[in-house]
Structures are given as C-alpha cells and as structure tokens.
Amino acid sequence: QVQLVESGGGLVQAGGSLRLSCAASGRSSSTYAMGWFRQAPGKEREFVAHIIWSSGITSYADSVKGRFTISRDYAKKTVYLQMNGLKPEDTAVYYCALRASVFGTYEYWGQGTQVTVSS
After folding, report:
1. What secondary structure, in 3-state letters, does the chain show?
2. Which of 3, 46, 50, 84 is most buried as measured by Cβ atoms within 10 A of its Cβ?
3. Percent of the chain having pLDDT more than 90?
4. Who's near 70: CB < 8 A, 6+ residues apart?
5. What digits encode the pLDDT tens for the residues 12-61?
6. Which of 92, 68, 70, 80 is nearest to 11 (CA)?
7. Cα(104)–Cα(42) distance, rounded to whole angstroms?
C-alpha cells in the first residue's frame, strides 16, 4: 500500500503564497503521475495540477495556470505545489494523489490539507 502525507496548508491573505508538500511512502509497483486536487465546501473535487513522474511534464487547471507551480523531488518521492497570488476562491481542502499506471486512475489519496485565503 501507498501512503501519502500532505503538509503546508494554512491561512493566508489574498495575494499571498503557500507551498504544499506531499510525501509518498510504502510499497508501490510504479508511479506514473502525482497530482493535486481540491474540494471547496459544497463543490465537487476538482483537478488542480499533475506531474508525470518520469518526464516531469506538468499540466494545470486553467483557474490556477500562471499562479501555481507543481514540482517533484524524484529521490524523496515528494511532490510540491507552490501557490502564489492566492485568491479567496482558492479556499479548499487540497488533496495529493498518486496514479500508478498510465492506464489507470488516481488510486491513492492523502488525507487533505486545508487552505484558507482571506479577502
């Protein structure tokens, strides 16, 4: 099994920055991608960003493009989400996820970390 542990959430004023981290541990056959998703109160979980583990190729939701940056530390099996220019609408619980295969989905999820942006 794979365990994902997020950290770095908190309360920040609009325009501020936060950096989320997610460390993967445990036994896994492979890692195709790691990603960040978020869920705001009363809304469905949505995709934020992901990174293809082997190549480092990234993808972002339009709502965060240009403000958020996903990166990885290959050796530490850790993924980061640098969030700049935060807006109140970024307030949500942020979840880290791991996808083992290109043919699969995101099978493993962290417990989530709260990000609150005040106006």
Report:
1. CEEEEEECCEEEECCCCEEEEEEEEECCCCCCEEEEEEECCCCCCEEEEEEECCCCCEEECCCCCCCEEEEEECCCCEEEEEECCCCHHHCEEEEEEEECCCCCCCCEECCCEEEEEEC
2. 50
3. 91
4. 35, 36, 49, 50, 51, 58, 60, 79, 80, 81, 82
5. 999 999 999 999 998 766 899 999 999 999 999 999 999 999 999 999 99
6. 92
7. 27
Tokens 């190729």 sit on residue: 57
Q: Which two tokens stand for residue 13?
A: 């004023």
* Assigned token pair, 112: 């989530």
**What pLDDT, on a 0 to 100 scale, did the predictor assign at position 29?**
65
Do residues 79 and 34 lie in contact, with contact meaning Cβ atoms separated by under 8 Å? yes
Quote the pLDDT of residue 28. 64
